[in-house]
Design a protein that fits this description.
Length: about 270
Amino acid sequence: MYAFDYHRPQTLRQAVNLIGRTEDSKVLAGGQTLIPTLKARLANPANLIDLGAVPELRAITQKGKSIVIGAMVRHAEVAESPLVKSAIPALADLAHLIGDPHVRNRGTIGGSVANNDPAADYPAACLAMNATIITTKRKIPVDQYFQGMFTTALEEGELISAVSFPIPSRAAYAKFRNPASRYALVGVFVAVKSGETRVAVTGASNGGVYRWTEAEAALKPRFSLAPIERLAKPPSTNMNSDIHASADYRAHLVYVMTKRAVAKALGR
C-alpha cells in the first residue's frame, strides 16, 4: 500500500464534511474491492474515509410498503434479518449467495451498489424491484442510477445512505456462480409488483446489469413458466466473453437462470 491519512467519522455529517474538505479521498465501506486494490497499489488516495463507525447507516427498517436498508448493512445481516426474510425472502436469499462467510460478514450493500461491479448480485435486485437509491443529496430512481460497467449516477462527494426496496408480491433470484470467486457468471432476479414484472440480469452483459425486456413482455399477460419456455435465448452480441464462459454460453445461462427464477417465484 501507499501511505494515506486515515479518517473514521462518527456521524454521516462528519463523513460528508470530510469528503468535502479533503483532497483525493476514497470512501471505505466493506472494503472488499478497495482494500485489495490498495494492497496491489492500483489506487493511491491521499485520504481514506472509513464509514464503519457511522450508526445512521446500519439500520434495516420498514417504511410503508418498502424495506429500507442502510448502506453499511453487511450482506450477512441482510441474509439473516427477520424483517427481510419475512417481507422480501428473495433478497435474503440473494445476500446468502454472495461470496463466502468472510465476504458476507465484511461486504456492505452500499459498497456493492456504489461500485456496480458487472458481476455483483445487488444491482440485479435493485433493478428488478425498482429500488430507490437514497444518497446524502437526493433520491435516485434505479432506472437512472446504473449507467454501465462500474458506472453510476453518483456525483463527486455524494454518498449512498440507504437503498429502499418496494415489497414485491413475487420475487426470486437464480444465480450461476463462478466456483472460485462466487461472483455471478449470470444471475437473474425476477420481481412482480402491482401487475408489473421486471427481469434484471447481472454478470452477463459487457454493459453491466440490465433488464431483459423481452422476458418481461412475455411474462406480462401471465406470470408462468410457459411464456419463458417459448422465448428464444437472448442474442450473445453484447455478452461478456472470458476464460470462465463464452458470450454464447452466457446468453444460454440468461435463458436458463430466468426459467429457474420464475419457477422459484412460483414456489416450484
